[in-house]
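Figure 3 (text version): structure tokens given as input.
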């Protein structure tokens, strides 16, 4: 873990590094509460933004070459590719082969249907880590402490409302992820 801390401290801006530390700690705490390996969650949380500060052209090039682009929106907003590209680079550059960690990193940006518990933890930890301040974050933290899936559903809804308020297009995976949870919970 120490080598990753040093690497990220050199690679990321100070604010993003602090955010990554917050996500790592939050992810480890959520993992303990949900019966998931906390060290696996801590590492995924720490490294989740590995590619976040790459230039848009580089994100597009790496994602395009690796076949990671899933929709036109990602071509228009390459920052959405930082999760999948981050997972790609973690394997290539750091030799991380834990598929669960790589998938959680890849999915943390926009979500996905049928997310694993580790996927859910990293997505949520990114949203609720202590450095995040937005209306409703404390309520979301309370829900996450007792019901991971309910918190994830609320996090998707908060993200969708935020994007709609900004009059920006929604990523289809976020909508699919929300719908997947709603349908899995029944009532429809």
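Below: residues designed for each position.
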């Amino acid at each position: 873990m120490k080598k990753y801390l040093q690497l990220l401290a050199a690679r990321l801006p100070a604010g993003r590094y602090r955010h990554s530390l917050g996500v790592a700690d939050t992810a480890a705490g959520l993992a303990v509460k949900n019966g998931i390996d906390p060290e696996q969650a801590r590492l995924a949380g720490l490294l989740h933004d590995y590619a976040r500060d790459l230039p848009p052209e580089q994100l597009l090039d790496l994602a395009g070459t690796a076949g990671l682009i899933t929709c036109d929106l990602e071509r228009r907003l390459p920052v959405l590719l930082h999760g999948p590209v981050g997972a790609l680079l973690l394997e290539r550059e750091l030799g991380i082969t834990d598929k669960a960690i790589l998938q959680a990193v890849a999915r943390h940006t926009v979500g996905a249907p049928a997310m694993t518990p580790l996927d859910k933890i990293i997505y949520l930890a990114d949203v609720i880590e202590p450095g995040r301040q937005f209306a409703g974050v404390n309520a979301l933290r309370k829900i996450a402490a007792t019901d991971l899936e309910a918190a994830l559903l609320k996090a998707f809804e908060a993200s969708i409302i935020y994007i709609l308020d900004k009059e920006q297009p929604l990523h289809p995976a976020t909508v699919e992820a929300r719908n997947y949870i709603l349908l899995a919970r029944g009532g429809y």
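The chain has a mean pLDDT of 96.
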